[in-house]
Amino acid sequence: MAFKIIRNDITKTKADVIVNTANPDPVYMAGTDSAIYMAAGAERLLEERKKIGCIDVGEVAVTPAFDLDAKYIFHTVAPVWEGGGNGEKDMVRKCYLSCLEKAVELEVESIAFPLIATGIYGFPKADALLIATSVFSEFLADHELEIILVVFDKESFVISDKIFAGIDKYIDENYVEETIRAEYSMPEEEAEESAECEDSEPPVRDRRNKRAGNLRPSHLFGARSRECADAMVPPPVDGAGAAAALVGSAAQSRRSLEDVVKNVSETWSESLLRLITERGYSDTEVYKRANVDRKLFSKIRSNKYYQPKKNTAVAFALALRLNLDETKDFLRRAGYALSPSSVFDLIIEYSIEHEVYNLMLINQALFDHDQPQLGD
Questions:
Q1: Please, are residues 80 and 121 in contact by the beta-carbon 8 Å criterion?
Q2: Rounded Cα distance, 253 and 91, in Å
Q3: Model's pTM, two decimal places?
Q4: Is 33 marked active-site?
Q5: Which residue from 168, 219, 312, 320 has the least number of CB within 10 angstroms?
Q6: Domain boundary, last residue among 177, 205, 220
Q7: Adjacency order of strands within the sheet including 146-151
Q8: Backbone phi and psi for residue 301, each to the nearest 5 degrees, phi listed first
Q9: Residue ranges making up the domain that contains 178
Q10: HSE-CB of 339 using CA atoms within 13 angstroms
Q11: CB-based burial, 340-371: b 16+ in 10 Å, e otherwise
């Protein structure tokens, strides 16, 4: 069981549980609430909802899913955003946690959430996303459950610049100039001169746009401002240490020659198991941090020649908190490399260089840029 983000209409999502941001009273309003009622069968669902009566903010109530491709609808009441000074963030956190605890109680295998309270309730999307993934990370450390975060469109999904504020510049400096050199065989010195001249004559800009497939950073990263492009990873936010929980602490030093040659004949699977032991981790904490389930890890453990997909190999490198040099060696054992011409690889490289190892957070950045997510 694992976590993933998908772009879809939540009423068309297949899961045991569909979560609805509900009205406290037995009526349905606009947005996700109305869409779920219409898709499930408004008359029958409303009749069940009336049996429950009023629901307090942060609490959850359960009804059948009727015409939805699910077993249950969880109705949770979110707070209206009033600036953040009235405990709104704690209440949104409680909404997610109440739903997850109810899912365990009912022994379901999967649950699909919208980004709670970010519609007509006005909760800031970036803060809501950080709260959601923080709760999911903590919960999945102790439970087996598939959690799906359903985003209706790109405008509904705003990644926090508090964590990845410098990623625009990183891709600009690496992906853009590397692709110029690859397409035009431009000498490195000339490419660097080109990078320094944002206001150079149109032919240079045209060549950049052409060779990057029109995926300039302004397109790769949506409409987000680049005012903080030079920022690195910030201190914890909201006093809850949410951001700190998403940041690793592995040193970024290179390996010694002795380390390089010591395990030269290891397969990828053997290397993974050795590193788990050397770093004092348990199997469970590593495969959970890698966002994969127990069945897949059992296959890896039982087959020393196991050939992982690239995103699985990368997920385990992050779960092991490897530095960049160690990651490159670990991936080579599976036949992979990190390329400066790949947006996916650059996001991974940026994350490791800045010691951001939480896969939920990294998957946000990957999803935001239409890249495959990490894990199962």
A1: yes
A2: 42
A3: 0.70
A4: yes
A5: 219
A6: 220
A7: 3-7, 146-151, 110-113, 17-21, 72-76, 60-64
A8: -65, -35
A9: 166-220
A10: 9
A11: bebbbbbbbbbbbebbbbbbbbbbbbbbbbeb
* Cβ atoms of 44 and 188 closer than 8 Å: no
Residue 368: pLDDT band (50, 70, 90) is: confident
- Convert the pLDDT of each residue in 151-183 to its tens digit: 876 655 656 555 566 776 777 777 655 555 555
Question: Token digits for 149?
Answer: 């975060």
Nearest in space to 140 (alpha carbons), one of 106, 75, 96:
96
Rounded average pLDDT over 44-50:
95
Domain match, 11 and 152 both: yes
Q: Rounding to the nearest 10 degrees, give the CA dihedral for residues 321, 327, 330, 333.
A: 160
SS3 string of the chain? CCEEEEECCHHHCCCCEEEEECCCCCCCCCHHHHHHHHHHCHHHHHHHHHHHCCCCECCEEEEECCCCCCCEEEEEECCCCCCCCCCHHHHHHHHHHHHHHHHHHCCCCEEEECCCCCCCCCCCHHHHHHHHHHHHHHHHCCCCCEEEEEECCHHHCCCCHHHHCCHHHHHHHHHHHHHHHHHHCCCHHHHHHHHHCCCCCHHHHHHHHHHCCCCCHHHHCCCCCCCCCCCCCCCCCCCCCCCHHHECCCCCCCCCHHHHHHCCCCCHHHHHHHHHHHCCCCHHHHHHHCCCCHHHHHHHHHCCCCCCCHHHHHHHHHHCCCCHHHHHHHHHCCCCCCCCCCHHHHHHHHHHHCCECCHHHHHHHHHHCCCCCCCC
Given 9, 16, 33, 238, the catalytic residue: 33
CATH number for the domain spanning 31: value is 3.40.220.10
Cβ–Cβ under 8 Å, residues 20 and 73:
yes
- More confident of the two residues 230 and 144: 144
What share of the chain has pLDDT > 70, as a percent?
Answer: 72
What pLDDT does 129 receive?
Answer: 87
Examine the domain organization and report whether 60 and 183 are in the same domain.
Answer: no
Whole-number Å distance between alpha carbons of 308 and 58: 41
Same domain, residue pair 190 and 95: no
Q: Is residue 287 domain-shared with residue 332, that is, in the same domain?
A: yes
Residue 360: pLDDT band by 50, 70, 90 thresholds? confident
